[in-house]
Automatic annotation (TrEMBL):
Keywords assigned by UniProt, alphabetized: Chromophore, Photoreceptor protein, Receptor, Sensory transduction
InterPro entries linked: HATPase_C_sf, HATPase_dom, His_kinase_dom, PAS, PAS-like_dom_sf, PAS_fold, Phytochrome
GO MF annotation, one: photoreceptor activity
Protein name: Phytochrome
């Protein structure tokens, strides 16, 4: 019976073991399926994650490289898989990654470790990617560590911003605390109202050292109308300073404001205060910088000289106004005398001289009226033109008469080469302005002609009909004189409205040129061998002669 039992026992044992093995296999299959599902989900999350994620096996070979890290580094997923992680990081980061990998494979997961990853392809010139990484140990079914997953945060842009901010911060400190005398007095206040800056120039100006004011309340301890380092004149001055500082801290733009205080020795300092916001790396207001502008001794001297010059100019202007007022009285007397002469039976020659005097009187009145212009030498000044009928002969005679005394003194002969019909031509325009222009250029020509020389005036007319009863006349006048001509510096002043140094002759030519431009004309200067010529152009009008004339 024993053998029978033994046989039974032998036969029964394999059956039980087979059932247990089947149960274990079923269990393992379930766990494996569950593990595969979890792994699949983890892979999907890793691939679609918005942060860089990479994974390595127990030998440090990359077996996971998501799209984000590929995008940042320029290294494609298929290029990264199978490479050792040490070959993908910067040399300076190799010891850090080796330690992190070693500890993670031991099950000790480090957090917030910084290392740099190389860039490739189109990203190579951008420099390394800076990552802040958390290590996660990967385990198998038996809880054995078989790899490491690195979940990272890209800090590259943040690092660049911080480096720039640190660099700017360093630059500003180097400038603020530079002992160079060109650096103005500067003090600062943080967002809480504490004095945060006080440079060497501020110490020199006030007598108060940096360590005596830093970390004290700027408004109340450093500046106040009483019981402060730098005393202000009164409570109103303190309120104005509070408004300027607090407005800047609130983000408002502030203009330069008058600012005065007493230094350590009781000397009152007058200055201008400009306030500028100080921003941190996030763009938030972290305080304000205050620059004090104190005129130097040289600037104060220059300002005094300028003030004295302005006062002198005002006095001259008042004297000039008086002269203008006073001139009108003798001119009125001359006008009365000429009017009386006309009623004394003068002959034609005498009457012509009286008419010349009348024309010169009108010209002088025009010039005196021009003094109301702010800048008569500028082309935009409102010099007015009249439109009236006149004889060309009257204009020429009046203009030439103004140079005859100068011609007589130098023995210069003036000749007018105009066609007789033109001299009798009736024109429309501003005869007094044309007379002023002609007399100015003629006088300059005589002045710069040699003794015993000659001046010749000629003209060229072109008529253009604009209707049955009106012609436009393009007039060209040439004033030719002997000698080397007008100096170049005077001629240049005729074309430079804002010339700092302007002679009387240059100003006269400039005003006359502006008048010609109002008449749609201009002036040119021509130098020839032993001769110089002014060429004047202007546009006038004329009416055709009546039938039968």
């Amino acid at each position: 019976m024993e053998p029978h039992r033994g046989t039974l026992n032998v036969a029964t044992k394999p059956a039980k073991e087979a059932g247990l093995d089947n149960q274990i296999c079923d269990l393992k299959n379930d766990e494996l399926a569950e593990l595969q599902a979890v792994t699949s989900e983890m892979v999907r999350l890793m691939e679609t994650a918005a942060v860089p994620i990479l994974a390595v096996d127990g030998n440090g070979l990359v077996n996971g490289w998501n799209q984000k890290v590929a995008e940042l580094t320029g290294l494609r997923i298929d290029e990264a898989i199978g490479r050792h992680i040490i070959t993908l990081v910067k040399e300076s980061s190799i010891p850090i990654v080796q330690r992190m990998l070693y500890l993670a494979l031991q099950g000790r997961e480090e957090k917030e470790v910084r290392f740099e990853v190389k860039t490739h392809g189109s990203k190579r010139d951008d420099g390394p990617i800076i990552l802040i990484v958390n290590a996660c140990s990967s385990r198998d079914l038996h809880d054995h560590v078989v790899g490491v997953c690195f979940v990272a945060q890209d800090m590259t842009v943040h690092k660049l911003v911080m480096d720039k901010f640190t660099r700017v911060e360093g630059d500003y400190k180097a400038i603020v605390h530079n002992p160079n005398p060109l650096i103005p007095p500067i003090f600062g206040v943080d967002q809480f109202g504490w004095c945060s800056e006080w440079n060497a120039a501020m110490t020199k100006l006030t007598g108060w050292h940096r360590d005596e004011v830093i970390d004290k309340m700027l408004l109340g301890k450093v500046f106040d109308s009483s019981n402060a380092s730098c005393l202000l004149k009164n409570k109103n001055a303190f309120v104005r300073l509070c408004i300027v500082i607090n407005s800047a801290l609130a983000g408002e733009e502030a203009e330069k404001a008058p600012f005065g205080f007493f230094d350590r020795n009781g000397k009152y300092i007058e200055s201008l205060l400009s306030v500028n916001r100080k921003e941190n790396e996030d763009g938030a207001i972290a305080g304000v910088f205050c620059f004090i502008h104190v005129p130097s001794d040289e600037l104060q001297h220059a300002l005094h000289v300028q003030q004295a010059s302005e006062q002198t100019a005002v006095k001259k202007l008042k004297a000039f106004s008086y002269m203008r007022y006073a001139i009108n009285k003798p001119l009125s007397g001359m006008l009365y005398s000429r009017g009386a002469l006309k009623s004394t039976g003068l002959n034609e020659e005498q009457m012509r001289h009286v008419h010349v005097a009348d024309s010169c009187h009108h010209q002088l009145n025009k010039i005196l009226a021009d003094l109301d212009q702010d800048n008569i030498t500028h082309k935009s000044s409102c010099l007015d033109l009249e439109m009236a009928e006149f004889l060309w002969q009257d204009v020429v005679v009046a203009a030439v008469s103004q140079s005859l005394i100068a011609c007589k003194g130098k023995g210069i002969r003036v000749s007018c080469n105009f066609p007789e019909r033109f001299m009798k031509q009736k024109l429309y325009g501003d005869s007094i302005r044309v007379q002023q222009i002609l007399s100015d250029f003629l006088f300059i020509a005589v002045k710069f002609s040699p003794v015993g020389g000659s001046v010749e005036i000629s003209s060229k007319l072109t008529k253009n009909s604009v209707g049955e009863n009106l012609h436009l006349i393009d007039m060209e006048l040439r004033i030719k004189h002997q000698g080397i001509g007008v100096p170049a510096e005077i001629l240049s002043q005729m074309y430079e409205e804002d010339s700092k140094e302007q002679s009387e002759e240059g100003m006269s030519l400039l005003v006359s040129r502006n008048l010609l431009r109002l008449m749609n004309g201009d002036v040119h200067h021509l130098r020839e061998a032993g001769m110089s010529t002014f060429i004047l152009t202007a546009e006038l009008a004329s009416a055709p002669p009546a039938s039968g004339q």
